[in-house]
Amino acid sequence: MSKPYSIAQRVKTPIAIVNERGGVEWYNDAFDAVFGWDSTDWLKEAARAVAGERGWLQGFFLAADEQRTIDVDIEGRTYRVDKIMPIDEYAEPAVALIFEDVTRQREMEQAKSDFTAQIVHDLRGPLSGIQGTLEFVLSQEGAKLDAVYADLLTEAQRESERMMGLINEILDFSKIQSGSFSVESEPVRVAGLLKRAVRSLQSVAARDEVFLLSAHGRDVPQIIGSVEKLTQAVINLISNSLKFTPKQGLISVGAQIVRNGELPESIVITVTDSGVGIKSNELLQIWEKYKQSGSKSLRGGGGTGLGLYIVKQIVEAHGGEISVASIEGVGTSMVLKLPVRRAA
Amino acid sequence: MADSLKQHGAWHTYTKLVEARNAYPEDLALRGYVEIVRNTVVRELLGNPKGLQAVPRLSAEFLTNFDRFNLSAQEGYLISLIDGRLDLQKLLILSPFDPFNTLFHLAKLQQERAIAIPQ
Question: How far is residue A198's CA from residue A284's CA, in Å, rounded to a whole number?
């Protein structure tokens, strides 16, 4: 046995070299202890399956040099399967895989997520009550509030909206972290979605003295995805723009169709502002979690640094792409590209 | 990009960016830059001291020599609405196009001197 193999033999984590048919070419002692040499039918089953959860093994053979990690449920436990490297010394193409048991970790993450969801739910209830009360008081035309009190109440309303935004971001982030962030497959009317997103923030934009305009026609094709999550992504982007766009500035929300011949292939959604812009060295980092722009929000208060990270997760869960363009002192445009999936 | 805007203005930069976008339709950032410049153009139009109450009117040049203007269908429709009485706010209501693109087409008509929007 060569030196690398004898080292791998002693590692306490299961390692196996598996071929495309699910056959085990080599395994270490830990693999034998956990799964048993004779009880690897799940590998052959994974190799036979061509789609769905059981088809995970094929993924390791699609791109030979690509690093890949997949969480797989095997015999009641969850294993994080990592491809170490392709192996070409057997009759068939094979890969060395390492199986890390992450069952406990997943349970902890789920417990953390459940706890966060409960806390967020408990916080949202009273906060909704505060928001409703403030909205009611401020909307009473006959109340003739003293200007100072009206300003204070408006400020309280602004801060309560910000707090609600932060709470929602934490909830979404905990869902992403726990892996329970799924995307529904329902028809999404993009034009209606953008209209709703713009309408929901029109009063905030008016209060901040920022123009918020739709920049799309009605003939935008439907896509398949989650109306709720995509609306949230667009609202996150508009909210972000509102933070950095000065008074009398402009935010436009548009949609363009990218065609392949006659057929629509994808939809590009843009949220563009005339804000302060983003420094070029920060452009690549803005989608990272906890990353805050170096530019200061013009409306005061920071955020969780999760808003754009969540947008990226939503877009990628829809099989889309995301990009950003910015000119310092001129404005920023967030660009989402979503595929138009047609029925087979 | 900032230099191009400063040196050559928004319309020249816009034309160059649209050419680039047509050549590289998959480049998402390029689409973003086009939108930033379009936003700048509309923002300048909204910066008119009269705001949406400004009343566009047809230019003398358009009235005497309209063959010179190579208008798109949208621009042609919008120019047919301009009667020297309707302000931008009313044109937005009457326009079948979305608010942003209506203002963008009006800004383009102003740039081509087909209409004038007094300040």
Answer: 26
Q: Residue B2 and residue A217: Cβ atoms within 8 Å?
A: no
A217:B97 CB<8 A: yes
pLDDT of res. B107: 95
What percent of chain A lies above the pLDDT cut of 70?
86
Q: With contact defined as beta carbons under 8 Å apart, do A302 and A292 qualify?
A: yes
Å between B96 CA and nearest CA of chain A: 9
Using alpha carbons, list the distances in angstroms from residue B34 to A216, A264, A268, A325, B31: 15, 21, 13, 9, 5
Phi and psi of A205, rounded to 5°? -65, -40
Q: Is B96 on the interface with A (CB under 8 A)?
A: no
What is the distance, to the nearest Å, from the Cα of residue A28 to the centroid of all Cα atoms in its chain? 37
State how far the Cα of B82 lies from the Cα of B94, in Å rounded to an integer.
11
For residue A145, the surrounding DSSP H or E stretch is none
d(CA A236, CA B47): 26
How many Cβ contacts (< 8 angstroms) between chains A and B? 96
pLDDT one-digit tens code per residue, A152-209:
888 888 888 888 888 888 887 877 776 666 777 788 999 999 999 999 899 889 988 9
In chain B, which residues have their Cβ closer than 8 Å to the Cβ of A252? Answer: 35, 38-39, 42, 100
Chain A CB within 8 Å of residue B105 CB: no
Tally of CB atoms within 10 A around A117: 16
Which tokens belong to A159?
Answer: 């801060």
**Closest chain B C-alpha to A69 CA, distance in angstroms:** 28
CB A295 within 8 A of CB A286: no
- Interface contact A268, partner B, CB < 8 A: yes
> A217 at the B interface (CB within 8 A)?
yes
Q: Give ipTM to 2 decimals.
A: 0.92
In angstroms, rounded to a whole number, what is the distance separating the alpha carbons of residues A25 and A19? 7
